[in-house]
Specification:
The chain is an alpha+beta fold. The chain is 21% helix and 42% strand. Strands 1, 2, 3, 4, 5 and 6 form a six-stranded mixed β-sheet that branches. The two termini are 17 Å apart. The model has no long low-confidence stretch (mean pLDDT 91).
Length: 145
């Protein structure tokens, strides 16, 4: 069975593929070649681990989950990214437990970057979430609900 982080990423990918703007252009690897935009990447970066002091067999993990949509050659890149943000935020809140995988999902910030140096200007947004989940440290692939 896959690590809990991968299970969470996969669940988010499934949700984001429901947004028609992206279609199947939802990726979990920054090294993938993304020729058609808009697309979105689902990246898990940092993780903080807290032990349950009463049992020592349960960890609460706080996973940084970055949702990174990109658009190009649009009039109003800022507006295009904000419209995508509306879709992403609503979609993730439809089932913030991701089918029971996480105990809490909290949006913590947004960053927007523009690249006007290419012949087709692009914009990228990073929507950062904290995803809380629990595991036994001996079984990091098994999520405790």
């Amino acid at each position: 069975m896959a690590h809990a982080r991968q299970q969470i990423r996969d669940a988010v990918v499934i949700k984001l593929k429901e947004i028609t703007t992206f279609g199947n252009r939802v990726y979990t690897d920054k090294t993938s070649t993304h020729k058609e935009l808009p697309d979105v990447m689902v990246i898990t970066s940092d993780e903080v681990i807290n032990y349950d002091e009463s049992t020592k067999t349960t960890q609460t993990r706080i996973l940084t989950l970055n949702i990174e949509p990109r658009v190009k050659d649009e009039t109003g890149l800022n507006d295009a990214l904000d419209n995508i943000a509306v879709s992403v935020e609503k979609k993730l809140l439809e089932d913030e437990s991701m089918g029971g995988l996480i105990t809490a999902l909290q949006m913590v910030g947004t960053e927007i970057v523009f690249d006007g140096e290419t012949n087709q200007p692009t914009g990228e947004m990073r929507i950062e979430y904290e995803a809380w989940y629990r595991v036994n440290p001996l079984f990091p692939e098994t999520i405790i609900t």
